[in-house]
Automatic annotation (TrEMBL):
SMART domains in UniProt: HintN
SUPFAM superfamilies tied to this protein: Hedgehog/intein (Hint) domain
Signal peptide (residue range): 1-22
InterPro entries from the UniProt entry: Hint_dom_N, Hint_dom_sf, Intein_N
Protein name: Hint domain-containing protein
Highest taxon of the lineage: Bacteria
The keyword NADP is annotated on this UniProt entry: no
Length: 335
């Protein structure tokens, strides 16, 4: 009787905590939330993660899974000697990177068995929420220690949101996770300091690339400090650029063919109105490209935009000391 009451108490706590936690998370989202459907919940639940400690970001079955706030696993060691872990992933729709919910994965350290719990967003379909509650009831209660660990993790994350609005890093600084897919195709040419280029897939940490200081409006140099690589199925967005002096009044003809610049839709570029995701760039916006004759940059006008230009299997992103570099001689910004 006592054990049954404890199980019921943990079930109620977990369900209530989850609801409040998801409301807080999605209330802070800057964009509209696409509600998770029951079919999507089932599809996310079926995703197999090969290495929970290393696979912190990947695409699978039309979804992006990204480790929640870049956190490692929550680890618990009970008096029975069994180590239990909880891994949290944010779930996004790969097509438009809208947040759908959370994936919590419980792992039993003795058997290495894992049990996934897909936690829908606050605006999800009622059937998706019913499925999650069923999992808590019929899966969670059969595994000793699962309900208490899951309740603790969700409560801890909710408390962090309530007190600070975001998770905190160990040094006390807030970690902000932006949108995803800040990347380029393997053949994207990165402009080096001498004006030559190298495929982004061939760039190494320590390479010095050409950079641009928007405040002083001067070219500079910057070493590459990190390279991010992601494998999956990635769609590229494109914009066609023409020098401003070559754009006719009616935008119908140019002495030279416009230059195509492409990247994933969320990669930030420098425009005349400041930082902007490539997918948000519109015809008429100005981007900036390297001009060898000026040893500086020139403004190029966006004359056309296009979605889903091509798909690639691997994408790359650079992190630089300056926070900016040039791809295809076009100024881009670190994510």
């Amino acid at each position: 009787m006592k054990n049954n009451l404890l199980s019921l108490f943990l079930f109620i706590c977990c369900a209530v905590t989850t609801q409040v936690f998801t409301q807080r998370v999605w209330a802070q989202a800057a964009s509209a939330v696409t509600g998770m459907t029951l079919d999507q919940l089932k599809a996310v639940k079926a995703i197999k993660i090969a290495n929970l400690d290393k696979d912190t970001y990947f695409k699978s079955g039309g979804f992006i899974l990204d480790r929640y706030e870049e956190r490692p696993a929550y680890v618990f060691t009970y008096s029975d000697g069994i180590t239990r872990k909880i891994y949290l992933y944010k779930v996004f729709a790969a097509e438009d990177t809208k947040e759908l919910g959370l994936l919590a994965i419980y792992q039993n350290g003795k058997t290495n068995e894992t049990k996934p719990f897909v936690i829908p967003g606050a605006s999800a379909d009622r059937k998706a929420w019913d499925a999650y509650i069923d999992d808590l009831k019929y899966v969670g209660e059969k595994e000793p220690g699962l309900m208490s660990t899951l309740t603790f993790v969700l409560s801890r994350e909710m408390a962090s949101l309530l007190t600070g609005g975001s998770a905190k890093s160990e040094d006390g600084g807030a970690k902000k996770k932006e949108e995803y897919n800040f990347c380029f195709a393997p053949d994207a040419p990165v402009t080096l300091l001498d004006g030559s280029s190298k495929k982004i897939s061939e760039v190494s940490v320590g390479d010095v690339v050409m950079s641009y200081d928007a405040k002083t409006k001067t070219l500079t140099s910057s070493p590459v400090t990190q390279i991010d690589t992601h494998a999956g199925e990635f769609m590229l967005t494109g914009v066609w650029l023409a020098p401003t002096e070559e754009v006719t009044a009616d935008n119908r003809a140019w002495p030279n063919a416009p230059t195509l610049f492409e990247a994933t839709a969320n990669h930030p570029v420098l425009t005349n109105s400041g930082r902007k995701a490539l997918g948000d760039v519109k015809a008429g916006d100005l981007l900036y490209r390297y001009d060898a004759a000026l040893n500086g940059v020139s403004a190029y006008k966006v004359v056309r935009t296009g979605q889903a230009i091509r798909a690639v299997k691997t994408v790359y992103n650079l992190v630089t000391e300056s926070g900016a570099y040039l791809v295809g001689e076009t100024v881009v910004l670190d994510k």
